[in-house]
Amino acid sequence: MAASDSSSAGSSTESMLQESRRFPPPAEFAKDAHVTSIEQYEQMHRRSVEDPESFWAEVAEGFHWFEPWTKVLDWNLPDAKWFVDGKTNLAYNCLDRQIDAGLGDQTAIVWEAESPGSDGQFVVEHWSYADLHREVCKFANVLKAQGVKKGDVVTIYMGMIPQLAIAMLACARIGAPHSIIFGGFSASAIRDRVEDGQSRIVVTCDGSYRRAKIVPLKDNVDEALTMTDRVDTVIVYERTKHDGVNYIDGRDHKWDALMADASADCDAEQLDSEDLAFILYTSGSTGKPKGIMHTTGGYMVYAAMTAKLTFDLNADDPNEMYWCTADIGWITGHSYIIYGLLPNRVPTLMYEGAPNEPGPDRFWDMVERHQVTKFYTAPTAIRAFMKWGDEHVEKHDLSSLKVLGTVGEPINPEAWVWYHEKIGGSKCPIVDTWWQTETGGHMLTPLPGATTTTPGSCCRPMLGIDAAVVNSDGEEVPNNTGGILVVRKPWPSMLRGIYGDRQRFVETYWEKVPGMYCPADGARVDPDGNFWITGRIDDVIVVAGHNLGTMEIESALVSHPDVAEAAVVGFPHDVKGTGIAAFVITQGQAPSPGSDAAEAMKKSMSAHVAKELGPISKPDQIRLTEALPKTRSGKIMRRLLRDIAAGNPITQDTTTLEDRSIVEKLQASG
Ligand code: WT7
C-alpha cells in the first residue's frame, strides 16, 4: 500500500545533487533523426498535450485497423477507452502488415542461443516476418484446438527462445490475453498467477539454459500444479530435451506434436481496441502481485510510437539492428523486444542467456558480431560491467552502436558516463527511459536527436504525456524542489486496471493525488525542464527535518573510487529522527570488517558524501558488503535493508530474493 514514510510524500524533497555535464545530440546523428531539435520536440509536445485527440488520431492512423474508431478517447477518470469501436489486431500489425507490403522476407527476429553448437560457433537463427507468421498461425490453431477462446487467459512460462515470441503473438492473434511469467520465478509464483488470472492453460518448456545450466521449467510447472487444480492443459516446447521430464497423459502435450498437424491458416481476430491484450504481474513492494491489464489498440499505438521515437528506429536503414537485453517476462521485453519493434519493421535481437556466459564480454561480443545499432539495458547491468573491468569491453569493436538506452531504476551519473564513454565511444546519445509496467511504454525520456542529456536525468516527457512534479494537493512545485511525479492526462497505453481488484487499482494509482495518475516516484524538474527521479516516494527519508532522496546519496557514494554499488535507507535515529544507512559494495575485495582499513574506507566515503551533497546527507552507518539483497528482476529490496539497518528481526517474505544467504551476511556486517 501507500508509502511507509508517507510523512514525507507530500512535502518537498530537497534536491542537493548538482550535475553540470551536458551532452548535446551529435549533429551527424540529429540531422537524420525523426525529431531533429529540442525546438521541434517542444512544438510537437505542446501540440500533443493541447490537442491530444488529433495528435493520437494521427499516430494511430499509421496502423492497420479492420474498422476505424468512432471516438479517439472516452475518459471517465480513472477509466480510459482509446480508439473507441476501432477493430484491430496486434499480431496483424506486427506480421501481416509487413507481408502485405511485400516485405515478408525481411528479418523480424534474430535469436542467439546461450551455448555454442557442435561446431563451436554460437547458434544464431534468423526469423523473417513470413517465418514467424507461419508459426504464429499454426500455434494459434493449436491453442484453438485446445479449447482456447477469445478472452481466455493463457499463461506462458518459457525461456528466451523464439517460441516464446510465437506463443505470445499467437495469443494476440486470437484475442486470448497472455500472462507471461518470468522464467526465473518459482512454482509458487506460477501458482499465484494462474489462480489470480483464472488461467486453465500453461505454455512452457522442458527447461531453459542459464549460465550453461538447465533451469527445470516443466518441473516448476508440475510443482505449481500440485498446488492448484485450475489448469487442465500444459503445452511443452522441448528446448533442453533433458532426461526425467514428466508428462501427464491427457494434461501435457508436446509442442512439436501439436504443431505437426496444425494448419498455417488462421485469420487474425478483429479485436475491439479495448479488448484485453495481456496481463502482466508486477510485484509492488508489499502484498500479492498486481495483474496489470493492458488493452489492444492503445497499447499497440503507444508501444510502437515510443520505440520509434526513443530509439530513433529506421526501417529503411538496412544496417539497423536493435537489441534490448531484458527478458520478455518483464514489460520491457513485451514492449521493447516484441510489440513495439515488429510494427516498426526493425530486426530485434533476442538473446537466450546470461551476460557473462561463457565470459564477461558476451554482450560486447554479440554487439560486434551482430553489428547492433541500438542497445537497451539496465543500470544494474551497467554497474556489473563496470565492476567486471574495462578490458572485456575494449576487446571488441562497438562502433556500430548509435543509441544506448537504460531503464529500470535511476542511473547514477558515474555509470551513465562510463556507459557513454566505454560502450558508446563518446558518440552515442543515451536515452534514460523512465516508465513502469503500468504505463506500457516510455513516459520520460530524451529523444536521441533532439535532447541535450545530462547524466542521471530522464529528461523530458514523451509526446502526448502531460507529466509534472506536484505536492500532495496536486499543485506544481517550483524548479529544483522535490515532489511527487504525476501524469495529468490519460495516454493510450495506460493500465486499464488490476486484474480482479478494482479497489486496489483506484487506491494505488488514483487517490494519492486526486485526479492524477500517481506512479509513486519522487522527482524534481531542473531549470532546463529536465526531470530527475529521486526514488520511490516510499524511499524518501527525512533526516533532521530535511527530506532526502535516497538515490542522490547513492549516486554520491558511487562516485567515490572505492564504491561499486550502494543502497541507502533510513533507520530510526535518536537525535535526527531518521538516520541514513548505506550498504556499500566495494570495488574489488572489501577490507575485513572492523579493521583499520575498513574504518578508514568508511570515513573517506562519508567525507566524500558530505563534500558532494553537504553534511546533512552524510551516512550514519556504512556497511561494506559483497552483495545487496535483490529480487530476480534486479530491484534492491529496500524494506529488508531498512529492517537490517534498524536491527529488527526479518519478518517479511524473502522468497523473491535472488540469493537468500545474503540476509545473514548483511546482519553480521555491522
Ligand atoms: C519503477 C517501475 C519500466 C520497465 C522496468 C521497470 C523505476 C524505471 C526508471 C528510470 C528511474 C526508473 C521507477 C518506476 N524506474 N525506469 N529510467 N529512472 N527510475 O518496471 O518493475 O514496473 O518498475 O522502476 O521507480 O516506478 P517496473
* Helical content class: 25-40%
Q: Which cofactor or ligand species appear?
A: 5'-O-[(S)-butoxy(hydroxy)phosphoryl]adenosine
Averaging pLDDT over every residue, what do you get? 92
Category by helix and strand content:
alpha/beta
Strand order of the largest sheet: 12-11-8-6-7-14-15-23
**Low-pLDDT windows of residues:** 1-12
Distance from first to last alpha carbon: 30 Å
Number of helices: 20
* Portion in strands: 15-25%
How does the major sheet shape up? 8 strands, mixed
* Count of DSSP strands: 30
Radius of gyration: 24 Å
Characterize the quaternary organization of these chains.
Answer: single chain
Overall geometry: globular
Task: Please provide a brief summary of the model.
By secondary structure, the chain is of the alpha/beta class. An eight-stranded mixed β-sheet has the order 12-11-8-6-7-14-15-23, with helices on both faces. A seven-stranded mixed β-sheet has the order 5-4-17-16-18-19-20, sandwiched between helices. Bound molecules: 5'-O-[(S)-butoxy(hydroxy)phosphoryl]adenosine.
Features:
670 residues, alpha/beta, eight-stranded mixed β-sheet, 20 helices, 30 strands, disordered N terminus, binds 5'-O-[(S)-butoxy(hydroxy)phosphoryl]adenosine
